[in-house]
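Dear H.,

Thanks for agreeing to be a second pair of eyes. The structure we're designing against is below in token form, covering all 235 positions.
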């Protein structure tokens, strides 16, 4: 029986000005089309965020303010282009795949709402999404250690050539998704729309447990919006 592993996927990743998906903005993007496990096309580029890129962010992804201004697509144009590709995939039932996509998709949704004619849903997007970290937490809930992209690549034997480059991260995320599907029949045999819905609940359960753990340790609770996946309400 055919499953999502043999179909088309759209790998997606952003590098950004910081870690706040509601107030930070992208500085680069990658959109990677994969069919039957093979990369068939890659679109990537720099984005001029219209603001200074903090030194800490530049140290992670290597993109300076000067380079982004000189070489990058203006923010609104980049957001509109990415939205067009992501919405077209959704309308064909092609999943957007990646790592911690509630960050990237929420940022995309927020910027589209601010700069154009509404967010993802208003522009015709409805999923599905396959998120490597959400799926990994579900199938291997009690494994200790980090669940960063680099850690998941090591766990599943995926090579990542240049971490924190948008194209490299998107391709590596697809590799982790393919490995998860190959390892776990529960994921491999699930219908895409059902798997999308399941991830909403799995992420909520994880966020609830993590929130309780933080409070039990005397730490601040998580942002209530962190319960929402794959797109958190702005504000």
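And this is the sequence the design step returned. I haven't edited it by hand at all.
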């Amino acid at each position: 029986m055919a499953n999502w592993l043999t179909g088309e996927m759209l790998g997606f990743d952003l590098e950004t000005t910081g870690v706040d998906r509601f107030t930070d903005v992208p500085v680069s993007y990658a959109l990677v089309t994969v069919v039957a496990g093979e990369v068939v096309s890659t679109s990537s580029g720099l984005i001029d965020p219209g603001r200074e890129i903090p030194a800490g962010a530049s140290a992670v992804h290597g993109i300076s303010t000067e380079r982004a201004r000189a070489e990058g697509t203006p923010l609104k144009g980049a957001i509109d282009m990415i939205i067009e590709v992501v919405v077209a995939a959704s309308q064909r039932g092609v999943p957007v795949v990646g790592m911690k996509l509630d960050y990237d998709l929420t940022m995309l949704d927020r910027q589209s709402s601010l700069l154009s004619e509404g967010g993802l849903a208003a522009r015709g997007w409805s999923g599905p999404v396959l998120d490597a970290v959400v799926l990994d937490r579900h199938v291997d809930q009690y494994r200790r250690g980090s669940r960063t992209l680099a850690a998941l690549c090591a766990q599943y034997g995926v090579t990542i050539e240049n971490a924190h480059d948008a194209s490299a991260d998107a391709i590596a995320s697809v590799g982790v998704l393919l490995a998860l599907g190959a390892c776990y029949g529960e994921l491999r045999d699930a219908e895409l729309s059902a798997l999308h819905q399941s991830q909403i609940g799995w992420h909520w359960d994880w966020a609830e447990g993590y929130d309780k753990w933080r409070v039990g340790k005397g730490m601040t609770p998580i942002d209530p919006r962190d319960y929402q996946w794959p797109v958190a309400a702005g504000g």
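Two observations from my side: Residues 210 and 216 are 10 Å apart (CA to CA). The chain has a mean pLDDT of 94.

Warmly,
E.
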